[in-house]
Amino acid sequence: MTIRALAYWLTxxxxxxxxxxxSSFLGPLLYLGAMGxxxxxxxxxxxxxxxxxxxxxxxxxPAILAVQAMQTGIMESTYPVFGSVKWNKTYYAxxxxxxxxxxIFRGHLLFNAARITMNSAVYLIVMxxxxxxxxPWVILGLPAATLLxxxxxxxxxxxxxxxxxxxxxNYLFRFGMIPLMLFSATFFPLSRLPGWLRLVAYATPxxxxxxxxxxxxxxxxxxxxxxxxxxxxxxxxxxxxxAGGVTYRRRLYV
Length: 254
What we know:
Elements lengths: L1 H15 L4 H25 L10 H20 L3 H8 L3 H6 L5 H29 L11 H20 L7 H15 L12 H8 L2 H14 L4 H30 L2
Protein backbone atom coordinates (compact mmCIF):
# COMPACT_ATOMS: atom_id res chain seq x y z
CA MET A 1 0.00 0.00 0.00
CA THR A 2 2.88 2.37 0.76
CA ILE A 3 4.40 1.73 -2.67
CA ARG A 4 1.05 2.42 -4.32
CA ALA A 5 0.88 5.79 -2.56
CA LEU A 6 4.46 6.51 -3.63
CA ALA A 7 3.57 5.67 -7.24
CA TYR A 8 0.93 8.40 -7.22
CA TRP A 9 3.40 11.10 -6.20
CA LEU A 10 5.96 9.90 -8.74
CA THR A 11 3.32 10.10 -11.47
CA UNK A 12 2.44 13.65 -10.46
CA UNK A 13 6.12 14.64 -10.35
CA UNK A 14 6.64 13.40 -13.91
CA UNK A 15 4.30 16.19 -14.98
CA UNK A 16 5.48 18.93 -12.62
CA UNK A 17 9.26 18.48 -12.27
CA UNK A 18 10.10 21.46 -14.50
CA UNK A 19 8.56 23.85 -12.00
CA UNK A 20 10.92 22.63 -9.27
CA UNK A 21 14.20 23.14 -11.14
CA UNK A 22 14.89 26.56 -9.64
CA SER A 23 14.24 25.74 -6.00
CA SER A 24 15.66 22.23 -6.16
CA PHE A 25 18.81 22.62 -8.23
CA LEU A 26 19.73 26.12 -9.36
CA GLY A 27 19.10 27.85 -6.04
CA PRO A 28 21.64 25.85 -3.96
CA LEU A 29 24.17 25.85 -6.81
CA LEU A 30 24.03 29.62 -7.20
CA TYR A 31 24.25 29.92 -3.44
CA LEU A 32 27.41 27.78 -3.48
CA GLY A 33 28.95 30.00 -6.15
CA ALA A 34 28.04 33.26 -4.42
CA MET A 35 29.11 32.18 -0.93
CA GLY A 36 31.97 29.84 -1.81
CA UNK A 37 33.65 31.94 -4.48
CA UNK A 38 32.26 35.45 -3.89
CA UNK A 39 32.35 35.78 -0.11
CA UNK A 40 35.00 33.07 0.01
CA UNK A 41 37.54 35.25 -1.80
CA UNK A 42 37.26 37.83 1.00
CA UNK A 43 37.44 35.25 3.77
CA UNK A 44 40.42 33.44 2.27
CA UNK A 45 42.29 36.74 1.83
CA UNK A 46 42.25 37.26 5.61
CA UNK A 47 43.36 33.73 6.47
CA UNK A 48 41.56 30.45 7.07
CA UNK A 49 43.04 29.35 10.39
CA UNK A 50 39.68 29.53 12.16
CA UNK A 51 38.18 27.37 9.41
CA UNK A 52 40.66 24.59 10.12
CA UNK A 53 43.01 25.57 7.32
CA UNK A 54 40.55 24.81 4.51
CA UNK A 55 39.20 27.26 1.96
CA UNK A 56 35.87 28.91 2.60
CA UNK A 57 34.43 27.03 -0.37
CA UNK A 58 35.38 23.72 1.23
CA UNK A 59 34.01 24.92 4.56
CA UNK A 60 30.65 26.15 3.34
CA UNK A 61 30.04 23.66 0.51
CA PRO A 62 28.99 20.65 2.63
CA ALA A 63 26.99 22.92 4.93
CA ILE A 64 24.87 24.10 2.00
CA LEU A 65 24.28 20.42 1.18
CA ALA A 66 22.75 20.04 4.64
CA VAL A 67 20.75 23.26 4.31
CA GLN A 68 19.22 22.29 0.98
CA ALA A 69 18.26 18.87 2.43
CA MET A 70 16.52 20.63 5.31
CA GLN A 71 14.74 23.06 2.98
CA THR A 72 13.58 20.30 0.65
CA GLY A 73 12.32 18.20 3.55
CA ILE A 74 10.37 21.10 5.05
CA MET A 75 8.98 22.51 1.81
CA GLU A 76 7.77 19.10 0.61
CA SER A 77 6.04 18.47 3.94
CA THR A 78 4.17 21.74 4.38
CA TYR A 79 2.02 22.99 1.49
CA PRO A 80 1.91 19.63 -0.37
CA VAL A 81 0.66 17.88 2.77
CA PHE A 82 -1.77 20.63 3.78
CA GLY A 83 -3.03 20.96 0.21
CA SER A 84 -3.73 17.25 0.03
CA VAL A 85 -6.24 17.71 2.84
CA LYS A 86 -7.57 21.24 2.40
CA TRP A 87 -7.44 22.14 -1.29
CA ASN A 88 -7.20 19.24 -3.73
CA LYS A 89 -8.40 16.52 -1.28
CA THR A 90 -5.84 14.03 -2.59
CA TYR A 91 -5.59 12.28 0.77
CA TYR A 92 -9.35 11.83 1.01
CA ALA A 93 -9.43 10.37 -2.49
CA UNK A 94 -6.67 7.95 -1.49
CA UNK A 95 -8.59 7.05 1.66
CA UNK A 96 -11.50 5.92 -0.49
CA UNK A 97 -9.24 3.16 -1.84
CA UNK A 98 -7.73 0.27 0.14
CA UNK A 99 -4.94 2.64 1.24
CA UNK A 100 -4.71 3.23 4.99
CA UNK A 101 -3.74 6.58 6.58
CA UNK A 102 -0.38 5.07 7.55
CA UNK A 103 0.22 3.94 3.96
CA ILE A 104 -0.73 7.37 2.63
CA PHE A 105 1.70 9.03 5.04
CA ARG A 106 4.59 6.65 4.41
CA GLY A 107 4.11 6.80 0.63
CA HIS A 108 4.29 10.59 0.63
CA LEU A 109 7.27 10.50 2.99
CA LEU A 110 9.09 8.08 0.68
CA PHE A 111 8.50 10.49 -2.19
CA ASN A 112 9.95 13.29 -0.07
CA ALA A 113 12.99 11.12 0.63
CA ALA A 114 13.41 10.53 -3.10
CA ARG A 115 13.24 14.30 -3.74
CA ILE A 116 15.82 14.99 -1.03
CA THR A 117 18.12 12.29 -2.40
CA MET A 118 17.80 13.50 -5.98
CA ASN A 119 18.52 17.13 -5.09
CA SER A 120 21.45 16.14 -2.88
CA ALA A 121 22.96 13.91 -5.58
CA VAL A 122 22.94 16.73 -8.14
CA TYR A 123 24.42 19.15 -5.64
CA LEU A 124 27.15 16.68 -4.62
CA ILE A 125 28.24 16.27 -8.25
CA VAL A 126 28.59 20.02 -8.72
CA MET A 127 30.22 20.41 -5.31
CA UNK A 128 32.85 17.84 -6.27
CA UNK A 129 33.38 19.49 -9.66
CA UNK A 130 33.96 22.87 -7.99
CA UNK A 131 36.58 21.39 -5.67
CA UNK A 132 34.47 21.91 -2.56
CA UNK A 133 35.13 18.35 -1.28
CA UNK A 134 38.49 17.16 0.05
CA UNK A 135 37.72 13.53 0.85
CA PRO A 136 36.17 10.64 -1.10
CA TRP A 137 34.05 10.05 2.02
CA VAL A 138 31.91 12.90 0.75
CA ILE A 139 29.91 10.29 -1.17
CA LEU A 140 28.39 9.30 2.18
CA GLY A 141 27.04 12.82 2.33
CA LEU A 142 24.20 11.58 0.13
CA PRO A 143 22.62 9.23 2.72
CA ALA A 144 23.54 11.74 5.43
CA ALA A 145 21.65 14.52 3.67
CA THR A 146 18.67 12.21 3.06
CA LEU A 147 18.55 11.28 6.74
CA LEU A 148 18.75 14.95 7.71
CA UNK A 149 15.95 15.83 5.30
CA UNK A 150 13.75 13.07 6.75
CA UNK A 151 14.50 14.30 10.27
CA UNK A 152 12.75 17.51 9.22
CA UNK A 153 10.20 16.11 6.77
CA UNK A 154 8.56 13.51 9.03
CA UNK A 155 7.85 15.78 12.03
CA UNK A 156 6.81 18.63 9.74
CA UNK A 157 4.32 16.45 7.87
CA UNK A 158 2.93 15.16 11.15
CA UNK A 159 2.45 18.74 12.35
CA UNK A 160 1.00 19.96 9.03
CA UNK A 161 -1.80 17.40 9.31
CA UNK A 162 -3.02 19.07 12.51
CA UNK A 163 -3.39 22.57 11.01
CA UNK A 164 -6.58 24.28 9.94
CA UNK A 165 -4.83 27.19 8.18
CA UNK A 166 -1.66 27.44 6.11
CA UNK A 167 -0.72 30.73 7.81
CA UNK A 168 1.20 28.79 10.46
CA UNK A 169 3.80 27.84 7.87
CA ASN A 170 5.07 31.42 7.83
CA TYR A 171 6.14 31.06 11.46
CA LEU A 172 8.00 27.86 10.65
CA PHE A 173 9.89 29.48 7.77
CA ARG A 174 10.69 32.78 9.50
CA PHE A 175 11.37 31.63 13.04
CA GLY A 176 12.52 28.08 12.37
CA MET A 177 14.15 27.43 9.03
CA ILE A 178 15.93 30.76 8.55
CA PRO A 179 17.42 31.05 12.09
CA LEU A 180 18.58 27.43 11.86
CA MET A 181 20.35 28.19 8.60
CA LEU A 182 22.09 31.22 10.11
CA PHE A 183 23.10 29.83 13.50
CA SER A 184 24.00 26.17 12.90
CA ALA A 185 27.64 26.67 11.84
CA THR A 186 26.61 26.92 8.21
CA PHE A 187 28.52 30.05 7.24
CA PHE A 188 30.92 30.51 10.15
CA PRO A 189 32.44 28.32 12.90
CA LEU A 190 30.23 27.73 15.90
CA SER A 191 33.05 29.05 18.12
CA ARG A 192 32.15 32.58 16.98
CA LEU A 193 28.80 32.40 18.81
CA PRO A 194 28.30 33.27 22.50
CA GLY A 195 28.54 30.30 24.83
CA TRP A 196 24.81 30.09 25.63
CA LEU A 197 23.82 30.33 21.96
CA ARG A 198 26.38 27.67 21.11
CA LEU A 199 24.61 25.24 23.45
CA VAL A 200 21.32 25.95 21.71
CA ALA A 201 22.93 25.29 18.31
CA TYR A 202 24.27 21.93 19.51
CA ALA A 203 20.69 20.83 20.17
CA THR A 204 19.42 21.61 16.66
CA PRO A 205 19.13 18.91 14.00
CA UNK A 206 20.65 21.15 11.33
CA UNK A 207 23.88 21.52 13.31
CA UNK A 208 24.17 17.74 13.51
CA UNK A 209 23.53 17.52 9.77
CA UNK A 210 26.08 20.23 8.97
CA UNK A 211 28.70 18.65 11.22
CA UNK A 212 28.06 15.23 9.66
CA UNK A 213 28.23 16.43 6.04
CA UNK A 214 31.21 18.69 6.70
CA UNK A 215 33.14 15.99 8.53
CA UNK A 216 32.57 13.55 5.65
CA UNK A 217 33.56 16.14 3.04
CA UNK A 218 36.73 17.19 4.83
CA UNK A 219 37.62 13.67 5.99
CA UNK A 220 37.69 14.75 9.65
CA UNK A 221 34.66 12.85 10.96
CA UNK A 222 35.37 10.42 13.79
CA UNK A 223 33.41 7.24 14.42
CA UNK A 224 32.10 8.54 17.74
CA UNK A 225 30.87 11.79 16.25
CA UNK A 226 29.23 9.95 13.36
CA UNK A 227 27.29 7.72 15.79
CA UNK A 228 26.07 10.75 17.74
CA UNK A 229 24.99 12.71 14.67
CA UNK A 230 23.35 9.78 12.89
CA UNK A 231 21.68 8.58 16.08
CA UNK A 232 20.24 12.03 16.83
CA UNK A 233 18.82 12.45 13.33
CA UNK A 234 17.51 8.87 13.19
CA UNK A 235 15.69 9.29 16.51
CA UNK A 236 14.14 12.57 15.36
CA UNK A 237 13.03 10.99 12.07
CA UNK A 238 11.62 8.00 13.96
CA UNK A 239 9.63 10.26 16.27
CA UNK A 240 8.28 12.07 13.21
CA UNK A 241 7.21 8.80 11.57
CA UNK A 242 5.41 7.73 14.74
CA ALA A 243 3.74 11.14 15.14
CA GLY A 244 2.73 11.15 11.48
CA GLY A 245 1.01 7.82 11.89
CA VAL A 246 -1.02 9.29 14.75
CA THR A 247 -1.96 12.63 13.13
CA TYR A 248 -2.79 11.11 9.75
CA ARG A 249 -5.05 8.55 11.36
CA ARG A 250 -6.85 11.20 13.43
CA ARG A 251 -7.33 13.55 10.47
CA LEU A 252 -8.34 11.00 7.85
CA TYR A 253 -10.60 8.80 9.95
CA VAL A 254 -13.70 10.97 9.92
